[in-house]
Description:
Blueprint: H1 18-28, H2 37-47, E1 57-63, H3 87-99, E2 108-113, H4 121-134, E3 142-147, H5 154-162, E4 167-173, H6 177-183, H7 189-201, E5 207-213, H8 220-233, E6 237-242, H9 250-256, H10 265-281, E7 285-288, E8 291-293, H11 300-306, E9 310-314, E10 319-322, E11 325-329, H12 333-341, E12 347-352, H13 355-366, E13 373-374, H14 375-382, H15 386-399, E14 403-406, E15 409-412, H16 420-427
Parallel strand pairs: 1-2, 1-9, 2-3, 3-4, 4-5, 5-6
Antiparallel strand pairs: 6-8, 7-8, 10-11, 11-12, 13-15, 14-15
Helix pairs in contact: 1-13, 2-14, 3-4, 3-12, 4-5, 8-10
Amino acid sequence: MYRRHICCTSLFHHKDTKITKVVLFIVTLSPSCLCVELFFKMNWRSRGIAPSSAVMTGLYIHVPLCVAKCRYCDFYKLTPRETDGMALFLQCLEIELRRLPKDFAPDTVFIGGGTPTALSPDEYRKMLDSIDRRINLSNVVEFTSEANPGTLTPEKLAVMREGGVNRVSIGVQSFNQQALQLLGRIHDAQTAMDGYRMLRAAGFDNVNIDLIQSIPGMSPEDVLADARQVAELGPEHISFYNLIYESGTPLTKARDEGKVIPPDEDEEADNYFAVKAFLENAGYSHYETSNFSKGGKECLHNVLYWQGGEYLGCGPSAHSHWHSKRFGNIPDLEVYTNRLLKDAKPFDEVEFLTKEDKARETLVMWLRMTNGFDLDEFKGGTGFTAHELCGDSIESMIEENLLQCVENRLSLTHDALFISNAVFSELL
Ligand code: SF4
């Protein structure tokens, strides 16, 4: 599913260092993060988000299946025509889950992909049974599955509910028919609304809707119409991302050939702030650069990433960050399954992070949260002051009105929200 945000690429000062590349990858892609345990624990407590006093950890599962490939998406996935089915994947996923540390007891679980709901009810049940058999789920406070509205059935949703899924993130992207066609989505607006209502009828009371803005051909009025329609549905959470043009996707090729014309950055920024104002008026809290929630229903799994929590990822292309090591599974189902069947690791390179690397990454990730972070908590958790890490940049960005320090909290200014990646790049 689509959960990325890159904004104002012309302000993106590229620094060609490994850590810069990795963190800019992280800030645009949710299944990835870093770890500063005490820091993280303190903030979860102070925000009152989670009831547990334990260090928060997450489990991510990547299901490498989609009914069809959207034209803008570069996530690793196969269509049914490209596979012999998901039986071998499910078998190997259980092997991988079995190998996770015995004391791993995540607080959040996030099943993404790909399209988890492209699995049949029976396949989905098998996946949940494996998770339940192999993972200690006693700490889980949030268990999310992504869903494509074109793949939902009451039977599948019943399997998800019975198996412990308590939050669904549904990829609507737009209610505009032309936009959906341009993106290559398998569903229309009516199917998206029917899918949302099916989720409610199945009893899900914590639902996210993903929307994309800056889709070529959509006017500012169309963008606001999407925001209005989603607010009328009233999900607990809304993710609102800018369309980005990933290398090698059909949409990028069409743009490069002049067949689609993206809106200019000023229009994108105007849309972003118009939607932000509209959703805030509708009762949503803008808690992260691209995310809105109401009723305290922030996405705990993503907050875990943004605040420097640890996680383990399973499935082809899934990333992990665990005990100062970062590694990513091979993005190839055949290689992934072969390795697991041969008792080999499903990943190659393991990157080790120094304390300073982690502190710097935590600083940048945490700035995605609109209320930023407390400077003393940062020092207590990482062992570094924010100014030790990047004092000159912080001071100059405060002067440029990109960062602000209010009551000892460092955060992005309103003006910097849409160009956050430019700020992050400067801090790395
Ligand atoms: S449904 Fe579309 S956007 Fe989501 S993972 Fe599949 S191809 Fe990508």
